[in-house]
Amino acid sequence: MIRALYSAASGMQAETLNIDVIANNLANINTTGFKKSRVEFQDLIYQSIREPGAKSTISTEVPTGIQVGLGVKPVAVSRVFSQGNFKHTGNALDAVIEGEGFFQVTNPDGTICFTRSGSFSKDSTGRIVTSDGYPMEPAITIPADALTVTMGNDGTISITRPGETTPTEVGTMQLAKFINPAGLKSLGKNLFLNTASSGDPIQGTAGLEGFGTIAQGFQEMSNVDIVEELVGMITAQRSYETNARAIKASDEMLNRAINLGR
Question: Of 23, 64, 170, 231, which has fewest CB within 10 angstroms of its CB?
């Protein structure tokens, strides 16, 4: 009965974290480039009352034994980097990656960060920056007299100037990918930072060496599936309620055992 109390309590704590993750996914349904998370669970240690294979007599052995589990724990909250749907914006500086890869931007402290959000704009100097003003890496500047901006599938950015008919190339986007993108550290603001788990970034050109291609005038939406998250939320809630009932049942059994002598 005491074991049941602690096991059920660990289940309630685990489902509380599960609900927290699902709530964050639902809150970011309309966040550009957002990647949903999922919780992974693992059973705790087992108390062996009778070992499997133990001798029951000289010539026979126990086929299964008696092992009682002591609950559950969350072991990981991993990102799911599946492709989100595309939304047409018509903005010449918006871009999506069709396939594998991340855009690179520079933090104010000089750190290179990575994002799937291609919502870019120009700052006062003409540099292509994120919504928070973080410049693209490598930095690309659009001249003030540019009439049009064109992005190629390979990330090449070209402009046309007044009186010119031939486009002028001003820079090329460099993408990055990782051996284990699930190991990236989330910084918020649609940004990720590489870690020892993700490995160092592998840089390259869009459309080459396994990198996705660039599509201009689109944004990648969140990959959160509302129906899937709502089903997960209901399942987590029911699991929480069931564990609470297990605690109540264990408490009632323990109460009866204590009151046997009265």
Answer: 64
Same domain for 96 and 211?
Answer: yes
**Are 66 and 113 in the same domain?**
no
Q: Establish whether the linkage from the previous residue to 167 is cis, with ω within 30° of 0.
A: no
Q: 60, 68, 94: which is closest to 2 by C-alpha?
A: 68
136-142: which pairs have CB atoms within 8 A and are 24 or more residues apart?
A: 136/103, 136/104, 136/105, 136/106, 136/173, 137/104, 137/105, 137/106, 137/112, 137/174, 138/104, 138/171, 138/174, 139/106, 139/171, 140/170, 140/171, 140/172, 140/173, 141/170, 141/171, 142/170
- Show the tokens assigned to 46: 């087992």
Claim to verify: residue 138 and residue 204 sit in the same structural domain: yes
Q: Is there a single domain that holds both residue 235 and residue 191?
A: no
- Cα separation, 34 vs 24, in Å, equals 11
Quote the percentage of the chain above a pLDDT of 70.
99
State how many domains the chain has: 2
Q: Are 16 and 9 in contact (CB under 8 A)?
A: no
Q: What angle do CA 147, 148, 154 make, to 5 degrees?
A: 150
pLDDT digits over 148-172, tens only?
999 999 999 999 998 888 899 999 9
Record the tokens describing residue 75, joined without a space: 């072991």
Question: Which of these, 116, 113, 114, 115, lies nearest to 84 by C-alpha position?
Answer: 116
pLDDT digits (tens, 9 = 90+) for 118-129: 999 999 999 999
Degrees, nearest 5: CA angle 182-186-188:
150
